[in-house]
Structure formats: C-alpha cells, structure tokens
C-alpha cells in the first residue's frame, strides 16, 4: 500500500519462516526507523491491521514490543502515538549514540579486513547516489547499513541491539530535519571514517564517528528543537 495521510509503511522482504507477528513488528519497526511515521502521529491498531492486511492480533503484539522499545506510546483511548521529540531527550539520545558507536567502532577495528572496508566504501557510494536523488528512505537505510556492517565486524559484539534502540527512537524526528543536515555536514565524515579504517587509526576513527553523528543530525536537530515555538507538548 502507499501513503496513508502523512505516514506510510515501506515494504520489507518477508523471509521464509517469518511469522506474521514478526512481519508486523519488522514492518512497523522499519517505518519508524526510517522516519516514515512522523513524531506525534496518532494511529490505531485497527488502522495498522487494515493497512497491513492482517488481523489485529499480530499488530497488537508488534505494538507491545515497540512500546517496550520506547518507539511508540500506547494512549489511554487505545490509540498509539509516535512520541514527540523534546530537546533534553534528543541531546541524551545523541550522546548515547556517540558513546555506543565509538565503542562499537573501536572494538570492530581489529576485525576489519580490507575487503570489508571496500564493501563499506561501496555502501557509502550508494549513499552519495541516494542523496543526489533526494531518496531519503534509501539514504537512511544505507546509512544504517554502513554503520551496522562496521559494528557487526566484531564477532563478539553485544552492543547492536542497544544502538538500534537509539536509532529507533531518533528515526521519526531525524527524517524531519534530514534536509537541514547539509547546512552542517560540510565534511563527508564517512570518507574520514573509511580513511581511519584503512590506516587502522582508532583515535581518528572515534573522532570521525562522533563528528558524523553531531553534524549528521545533532546540530540541525538541536537547532530545530530550540528554535521551534509551536511543537505540541509531549505526554
């Protein structure tokens, strides 16, 4: 299906063996992660079930899991809302991203072969193409893929679920300010990350990861929240 008002649920691949509950969860999870459902959007389980052509039961379970992930709020009237972003929460999430992802990158560095770095460079090239076409769904998906591939290079990693939880909470608001990122993102920090990886330079890698997060969303997001006078209160 296409857009439903201001929100939509992009298609995902339904793997063999994926249960209906898992499909509903991954489809809604993906939409929130990409920012296809804006902050403060109010939904119903019945409406989501109709959109997905599913019974309410798997959607209800998906919403329960997403509520535990702090990706949605279940309201008293049985409606569901994607949380509005607040400046304090935004700053907390940005700092969490920096701490978690710098740690993950340094831990992954000894495990990255040259061919893995070349694969990351190929993903980054696809990001450049998506940006040129203003395909923000693809751009966001590829940005996650770039970072996920890097961090998962550590065979002993246990941090990716924590990182994805932060991405999920930032996703809807990130889409709102994505176009403004280019005002701050004057250096392509992915290129700096790739250079640091090739040189096996952990210090330069952590600086590049932190700069990528701050310039990628941190500054434009903070400016939008601090300068907005008409955002509805959360809660």
Description:
By secondary structure, the protein is mostly helical. It folds into 2 domains: 20-81, Arc Repressor Mutant, subunit A; 87-227, GntR ligand-binding domain-like (Four Helix Bundle (Hemerythrin (Met), subunit A)). It has 9 helices and 3 strands, in the order H-E-H-H-E-E-H-H-H-H-H-H. The chain has helices at residues 20-34, 45-52, 56-68, 87-108, 114-132, 136-152, 160-177, 189-199, 202-227, and strands at residues 42-44, 73-74, 79-81. A 3-stranded antiparallel beta sheet has the order 1-3-2. A hairpin with a 4-residue loop joins strand 2 (73-74) and strand 3 (79-81). Helix 4 crosses helix 6 and helix 5 (114-132) packs antiparallel against helix 8 (189-199). It is globular and about 55 Å long. The protein starts with 19 loop residues before the first helix and ends in an 8-residue tail after the last helix.
* Number of domain modules: 2
- Tell me the structural class: mainly alpha
Question: Separation of termini?
Answer: 30 Å
Q: Which geometry do the CA atoms define?
A: globular
Order of secondary-structure elements: HEHHEEHHHHHH
Mean pLDDT: 88
